Design the sequence.
């Protein structure tokens, strides 16, 4: 059984490429609207890294295989991870990885007692981080995956949408509660616990991966974001939702590519963008830019993705977001459009775009 659920194709392809090419970094911020989806993605990554009987991959195929094909789903490690009971896969939240006053991990009875208390802890405790660092200091044959997430308690009638880790299971069994993952917010960290942790995040023990689940990186602490790569996890779009104007963007994109090959003038392209999308189609500039953003996203979802391509994609999406912001604020529209086209041509020239 695989720990997969519908996850963004781009994010999955990104991790497949990073794992198979050995370029996985040690910290990622997974950002997306649905934290359960992010949590499932984290477990799929954990399986791909820990499967003891990984399937043979066909050689010579251009498209990267799905992330789930890197793990067998049947071996002991895969099964443990899909039940979220693997000792190397740790979930850290204000409600989990609990430690008692002596700084030791709580036993099930203590967890139950904690769960019956009226108010839930609002922050990840410094002792929790101390325990985590201690735990990571002990060598392991596995690849450790540490998932940071926020979580809220709900009545047991609303089943947890993710396989609950050990601590949640202990509490759920007796406290008539279930746990629902939520995006991380900076308020769940306190200054002491974060400072204690930053060095480990910067120089983690070998074969250790940190994943932070959040909705936007602005919600997280800069000190964490700056030490991680941010991976946007977009929900895959169904063809029915496709916008007919995407075809016009596809035309424009091809034109842009050819124009750059001929070393054409960037101002001319900008004028063409304005003529086609703003004058002829009657879109506002932010509408035209959002359409272009949607087109690029579509293009990436269907193309093979490697690390360089993904980096280009991120730069473009960020530049587009920034440009839309500037244009909406009715600030320097032409200058920001020009800047966008310069970035676009730079990325196209680097040949990392599909
Ligand atoms: Zn396996």
Sequence:
């Amino acid at each position: 059984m695989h720990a997969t659920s519908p996850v963004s194709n781009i994010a999955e392809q990104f991790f497949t490429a990073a794992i198979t090419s050995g370029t996985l970094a040690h910290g990622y911020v997974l950002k997306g609207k649905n934290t359960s989806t992010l949590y499932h993605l984290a477990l799929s990554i954990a399986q791909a890294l820990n499967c003891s009987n990984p399937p043979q991959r066909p050689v010579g195929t251009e498209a990267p295989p799905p992330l789930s094909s890197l793990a067998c789903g049947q071996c002991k490690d895969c099964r443990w991870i899909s039940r979220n009971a693997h000792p190397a896969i740790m979930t850290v939240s204000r409600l989990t990885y609990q430690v008692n006053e002596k700084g030791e991990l709580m036993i099930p009875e203590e967890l139950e007692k904690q769960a019956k208390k009226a108010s839930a802890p609002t922050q990840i405790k410094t002792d929790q981080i101390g325990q985590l660092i201690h735990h990571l200091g002990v060598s392991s044959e596995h690849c450790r995956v540490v998932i940071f997430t926020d979580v809220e308690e709900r009545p047991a009638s609303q089943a947890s949408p993710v396989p609950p880790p050990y601590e949640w299971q202990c509490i759920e069994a007796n406290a008539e509660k279930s746990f629902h993952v939520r995006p991380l917010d900076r308020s769940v960290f306190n200054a002491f616990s974060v400072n204690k942790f930053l060095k480990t995040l910067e120089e983690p023990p070998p074969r250790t991966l940190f994943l932070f689940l959040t909705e936007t990186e602005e919600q997280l602490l800069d000190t964490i974001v700056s030490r991680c790569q941010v991976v946007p996890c977009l929900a895959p779009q169904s063809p029915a939702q496709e916008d007919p104007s995407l075809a016009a963007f596809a035309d424009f994109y091809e034109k842009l590519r050819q124009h750059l090959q001929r070393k054409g003038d960037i101002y001319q392209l900008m004028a063409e963008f304005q003529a086609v999308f703003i004058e002829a189609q009657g879109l506002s500039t932010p509408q035209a830019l959002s359409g272009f953003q949607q087109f690029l996203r579509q293009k990436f979802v269907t193309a093979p993705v490697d690390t360089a391509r993904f980096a280009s994609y991120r730069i473009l999406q960020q530049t587009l977001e920034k440009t839309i912001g500037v244009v909406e604020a009715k600030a320097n529209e032409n200058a920001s459009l020009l800047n966008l086209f310069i970035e676009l041509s730079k990325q196209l020239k680097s040949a990392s775009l599909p």
In short: Residues 1-7, 237-242 have pLDDT under 50 and may be disordered. The first strand starts at residue 27 and ends at 31. DSSP finds 13 helices and seven strands in the chain. Residues 51-53, 71-72, 74-75, 77-78 surround zinc ion (CB under 6 Å).
